[in-house]
Design goal:
Helices cover 58% and strands 0% of the residues. With 99 residues, it is an all-alpha fold.
Length: 99
């Protein structure tokens, strides 16, 4: 059964390639009201195919950036979203266990 599913996936991929080629060939004949919808559909196909290719290559499908708290504060200050002030007087308060 898995073999047949893979075979159908390959057939669908071939059909998708043909549909895309036809869309490119006939783009001048497309109703102008449908151009944006068609462009969005092709963008979605491209995005899905890139993501699947990355998964199959065991590559990440998203990019995450990790920063330390002080780096985040500096970035917020640079963007004008926050203002950095010096802490003049502070007391550390231990949290109680609430089990």
């Amino acid at each position: 059964m898995a073999g047949r599913a893979l075979e159908r996936a390959l057939q669908a991929d071939d059909a998708q390639k043909l549909y895309i080629e036809k869309a490119v060939e006939n783009v001048g004949e497309v109703n102008p009201d449908h151009l944006a919808k068609n462009a969005l559909a092709l963008a979605n196909v491209m995005s899905q195919n890139v993501e699947k290719a990355q998964l199959l290559r065991d590559r990440p499908t998203e990019i995450r950036e990790l920063k330390a708290a002080d780096e985040l504060v500096e970035e917020l200050v640079r963007l004008g979203v926050a203002e950095k002030t010096d802490v003049v007087d502070a007391v550390v308060v231990e949290e109680e266990d609430v089990d």
